[in-house]
Design goal:
With 154 residues, this protein is an all-alpha fold. The chain has seven helices and no strands. The relative contact order is 0.14.
């Protein structure tokens, strides 16, 4: 099993490959990137900690929120997507979900509520009054998930 540190390194290698492909004006969807991200998603989903789950949820959300030609992130394994939502629901039920994760989910849900509803994330009203003060520096060295959030929070 891979550790979070190893997965972060792999995530960063994928980002480097994306940058290289974009410099060469090559299509991400026709490259190995979608397969690399699908494998990374499976690995993040298999690590039992909240940080890995945050990254897995980001990848599965981004796969439906952004076209593959722009992100390189294609279809994920639906069974694993559902299992991740079950994990999130358990964190909510057991009040173990942190403020950052709540903020992230609120953002994702505001863009693709249909997606999360289809997977069974029913407790989204729980987030309605949550406010968070996230700093873009909190997302350093967190792979594509971190790069996305740094760009949003600047």
């Amino acid at each position: 099993m891979d550790t979070l540190i190893e997965l972060t390194l792999l995530d960063n290698v994928i980002l480097e490959k994306i940058n290289q492909l974009l410099k060469e004006n090559k299509e991400l969807k026709d490259s190995p990137i979608p397969i690399l991200y699908r494998d990374l998603f499976i690995k993040y989903s298999s690590v039992e900690n909240i940080e890995s789950l945050k990254r897995a949820i980001f990848l599965q959300w981004y796969s439906v929120a952004e076209p593959i030609k722009n992100s390189g992130i294609g279809e994920m394994n639906v069974l694993i997507e559902k299992q991740n939502i079950i994990k999130v629901n358990q964190l909510i039920k057991n009040e173990l979900i942190d403020e950052e994760f709540i903020f992230l989910l609120k953002h994702y849900y505001s863009i693709t509520d249909w997606y999360f509803d289809s997977l069974g994330l029913k407790q989204i009203n729980f987030y309605s009054n949550v406010q968070s003060k996230l700093d873009h520096t909190n997302f350093d060295n967190r792979g594509v998930f971190g790069e996305y959030w740094k760009s949003i929070l600047k």
